[in-house]
Every structure is written in C-alpha cells, then in structure tokens.
Amino acid sequence: MLTVLEVCEAYGGGVKRHVDHLYDHLNTDHIKIMPYVTTTRINEAAPDDYLVDNRQSEFYKPWNLWRVLRQLHRLVRENDVNIMHAHSSYAGMIVFLYTFFLNHQIKVFYTAHAYYSEKPLAKWKRAIILVMEKLITSRANLVIHVSDDEQAYALREKIVTEDKAVVVNNGVSEPKNCHYADNAPVVINIARCDAQKNPLEFVEIAYKVLQTVPEAQFIYAGGGVLLADMQAITNNLGISANVHFVGHISDVDPYYRQAKVFLSTAHYEGMPFSVIDALAYQIPVVLSSVTGHKGLVTNHNGHLYTPGHIDSAAHLVTEYLQAVVVEDSQRSFALYQQQFRLEDMVSQIAAKYEHG
User: Fold this and answer.
1) How far apart are alpha carbons 320 and 317 in whole angstroms?
2) For the chain, counts of helices (H) and of strands (E)
3) Which pTM does this prediction carry?
4) How far apart are CA 294 and CA 304, in angstroms?
5) How many angstroms separate the most distant Cα atoms in the chain?
6) pLDDT digits over 267-305, tens only?
7) What is the reported pLDDT for 80?
8) Are 151 and 8 in a shared domain?
9) 51 domain residue, yes or no
10) How many domains does the chain divide into?
11) Which regions span the lipid bilayer (predicted)?
C-alpha cells in the first residue's frame, strides 16, 4: 500500500477540485490518499474523512508553524506515508520546512496550481517570491504542472529544472445529456471574485457588448473579496439587470447548460477547471491570453484576447452571440475529449505516485 499525504493549505477553487478528484478516484487497494487541508482562508467545508488543521494558514507564526510541522511528522510516522504532495505555495513552503528540519528522506511532489510570481507584483516582491518558489521545488522529487503553459513559465524563470518537471493536465468528468444552448445570448464565468480572476474586466467587456447586444445576459458565479464591489459597480453603471454577480454556487450545472459563451478574464492561471468544464459542456470560450489559458484554445474552439483590450474582447464575444457557432461548440468538446478527461488525469498521477 502506497500512502500519499496531500497537503493543501488553500482548500478551495481549482486546488479543492484537484485534491477531491485524487481522493475520490485514487483511493484503491494500491494507493491511500490522505488530504490534510485548511478550510478557514477560503471558507470551504471539507469532507469528514479529511484531516483539517487550520493552523496551516498561520504558519508565519513561529509557534503555529512548529505545531504544524510536528503534526505532519506524527501523521507521516503513524500512517507510514510514502509521499507528501504539496498543493499551492503555502503548502509547498510548509512541506519544504518540514523536509528541511524533520525529515530529509520522504519523497515530495509539488503542484503549484499557478505560480504566485506570475501575479502582477512590485519587482522586489516578485524577486522574493521567486526565491521562495525555487526553494520549494529544490526539495521536491517531482513537480507536477497542470498545463504546458505553467511548466514553460517555471522552466523559463528557472523555478524548476527540466529533469524534475512533468505535465499532467487537469481533467473533469463528462456531463450527462449535454446539449449546447446555441440560441441563448448568455455569457458566463465561474471563478472566485478576486484580483487574480480580474472581474472588473468582465464587467467592462459586458458593458461594451451590451451596447450592441442589449438582450445579452452575463453571469459571474463565484464568491470572493471583490464580490460586493462588483455588484456595486454594475448598479452604478446601470447594467445590473444584465450583469449578475451571483456569489458562490454549489451547483453550477444549470449555468453551463444555458451558456452560449464562456468568458474568463484572469490575470494568470494554472489550468482552470471552470474552462475545462466549459469545453466539456461544448461551449466556445473567449479567454485572456495568459498562462494557463493558451492551451485551452486550439483548432477554432474559441479565441484569446490581449488582457486589457476591452474592445477586442467585446468584439469576439459579440460575434459569438450573434452567430450560429455549432462547429466551435463541437471543437470545444473534441478538445476536452482529447486532452482533459478526468480518467486521464487520475491515471497519469497514479502512475507518477507509483513509479515517478
């Protein structure tokens, strides 16, 4: 039996789905998955079988950090853990410190789910973050990237060496009885409402599109620190009847089923599950041309636009709303089947755990 401790400080969004997929599909006679998560920072509830330790989010406090490291050491010894798989930067730093101070031998995997250094930062702060990311990967036996874009960035910035780096695309299940809503002028995004996801640009694009397609409906589903601000902005612009920031939604299936276009305006990504879901739901996509998005637009299943170019993005969305785009819909689904099936993601990670 191979035991893997999935260390996850930011249990929410794409990280949550990734860890949940591993737990739901890799717990077998050969592999035991043990998620060790924090739920307070993103305010997501964890399943009863998960190990919850909210001190991870306060690892910058020396006493809490030491307690977390001791707890990790106890879990490793009591459960005969073979691999520690750290997810995102905070967890990566915690595992780095654990291996530095308490356990040099344990095998470590790391998945960034988008490198923090890709965020718009002051030059000095970015330099510090890059050093931290390089420290994290220095202790890892294998760094699993969730997209070719993410790996290319890591290699270009010398965050990781090529011999340690592999790509396993995120994957999702195929929705049942899915039929593309070609006639509905509905544009959606499923994302956290925070700075990384750039929701203000979503509003700006919607405002521009509505001048040409006044019947269009824009839906942004996701909670976050900017939710109230975005709701206030749509009210002030007089477009709240057409642009809806609906907050966190547990069941997003109805939103995908009514959408004609998926619009993501993020500043950077690893490999967003929400866009992969859109492909699986046969929806054409309009995405900001950033890391994590570029590999999701191939063979005319959608378009990339330069971040900040509102007129260009609005034109692309308007074209989709005003045209019959069944072929682009079919290409989205074909891309999903070729590269982003859940079964492929799970089997590839299992192979890395067993042989990587």
Assistant:
1) 5
2) 12, 13
3) 0.92
4) 7
5) 63
6) 999 999 999 999 999 999 999 999 999 999 987 899 999
7) 97
8) yes
9) yes
10) 2
11) none
Residues 224 and 75 in one domain: no
* CB half-sphere exposure, 266, CA atoms < 13 A: 26
Q: Do both 322 and 206 map to the same domain?
A: yes
**40/82 same-domain check:** yes
Query: Are residues 125 and 88 part of one domain?
Result: yes
Strand ranges inside the chain, DSSP E: 2-8, 31-37, 51-52, 83-87, 107-111, 142-145, 165-167, 186-190, 217-221, 243-247, 261-264, 285-288, 302-305
End-to-end CA gap in the chain? 16
Q: Which residue has the tokens 């905070």?
A: 90
Query: Are residues 158 and 34 located together in one domain of the fold?
Result: yes
Q: What per-residue confidence (pLDDT) applies to 356?
A: 66
pLDDT of residue 298: 87
Tokens 């923090």 map to which residue? 116
Q: Show the domain range for 315.
A: 186-339
Q: What six digits make up the tokens of 47?
A: 């399943």
Tokens of 45: 């509830």
The structure tokens listed for 294 are: 């570029």
36 and 110 share a domain?
yes
Give yes or no for a contact between 346 and 172, defined as CB atoms under 8 angstroms apart: no
Tell me how far apart the alpha carbons of residues 317 and 205 are, in angstroms, rounded to a whole number: 9
Do 156 and 214 belong together in one domain? no
Calculated CA dihedral for residues 236, 238, 242, 244, nearest 10 degrees: 20
Burial of 38 (0-12, 13-18, 19+ CB in 10 A): buried
Write the single-letter amino acid at 238: G
What pLDDT does residue 187 have? Answer: 98
Cβ-Cβ contacts under 8 Å for 149 (sequence gap 6 or more): 271, 291, 292, 293, 294, 295
144 burial class (0-12, 13-18, 19+ CB within 10 angstroms)? buried
The pLDDT of residue 42 is 66
Q: What order of strands is seen across the sheet that includes strand 51-52?
A: 51-52, 31-37, 2-8, 83-87, 107-111, 142-145, 165-167
